[in-house]
């Protein structure tokens, strides 16, 4: 995994340096090379993402129908506390790094792509209640057909799970074939996942290198301040996770060693939902987190409280936009940013481009939705910063799963301490 990550970065940099000054490359070669890297990288990512919906659906059902009622209630409360609590912390860190790097929104002016403008305009026209209401699906099959509808899938799965839980008590014979089918489907999906994961190193090389090839090093150097700020926030949050782990007497070094390959894939794929199958596998098989906790926490974390896309990033944009229009930077304003970011992080689906939605929801909540074009240049480097954001999302979900499981007393410390299994 380390080799794949390094090789992808080196390939991307070399190709851009060699062809960056060539007119033919810039007009034709870059697009052609990027398309072939996409063939491998995006092709592999699609194989992972096609499993996201069934994994979410089956995981939620299994947890709800198998966990005892009292534990399910406690599990829900603890999960929301961890996911939203770490999001609030990440929002505060986002504000801190903006001040640390002395960033000013006026220096990030730029035109937004037409598709992004349309998407932002659509979200900006919605009030907070309308935004959350749109998360409730009106068509089961439509919600299952789109990775951007993870929240809707969770809602559908929860409804079915509650019904199955009731029927297991009152009509056990009638519902047992369905329960057996769900068990079989879950085993089959994980078997397919194991097969797909074998190709992960090749996918990572293509995804990482193509991020540089498709965008060019020049797009990176022009906004180094913002890129440095957001990756500084990511590093600070990873250190905060380590402190939290130490507080519950879990070795953070072991945690990051075992999480490493999952985080590398999250970094490369830029998809929290797409990483979910691998996240679950790492939590259960390597970290000793119980199946109930890992399935429940990690699944919800793909749509609630994503620390990178729905925490650090929208908080940074909120402060940058506010500063660019002359808003007074007071403690009360910073607290309102943290509050709006935390509330708005509920229901943000973990697929590429999610941060745009989170940023728009946050700016609407602060009353600056109409001014997002003031920092349009930032969205030009979105793939670069999205890699770090997604890695932080997944790290936060894994941390929350470990903490909640430890909190519940179902954490397998002995399994966690074991050496990583060789692949």
Question: Which helices and strands appear, and what pairs or packs with what?
Answer:
Elements: H1 2-19, H2 23-49, H3 52-66, H4 69-100, H5 114-124, H6 128-133, H7 140-144, H8 150-170, H9 172-197, H10 200-215, H11 217-221, H12 224-247, H13 252-269, H14 272-285, H15 291-300, H16 308-324, H17 331-344, H18 354-366, H19 382-408, H20 413-417
Task: Write up what this structure looks like.
This protein is an all-alpha fold and 423 residues long. The chain has helices at 2-19, 23-49, 52-66, 69-100, 114-124, 128-133, 140-144, 150-170, 172-197, 200-215, 217-221, 224-247, 252-269, 272-285, 291-300, 308-324, 331-344, 354-366, 382-408, 413-417. The chain is globular, with a radius of gyration of 21 Å. The termini are close together.
Strand content: under 5%
Number of strands: 0
Assign a percent range to the helix content: over 70%
Instruction: Describe the main β-sheet briefly.
Output: none
The oligomeric status of these chains comes to single chain
General shape: globular
Arithmetic mean pLDDT: 82
Low-confidence stretches: none
**Rg from Cα:** 21 Å
Distance between the termini: 11 Å
Features:
423 residues, mainly alpha, 20 helices, 77% helix, 0% strand
Provide a concise account of the structure shown:
The chain is built from 20 helices and no strands. The chain has 423 residues and is an all-alpha fold.
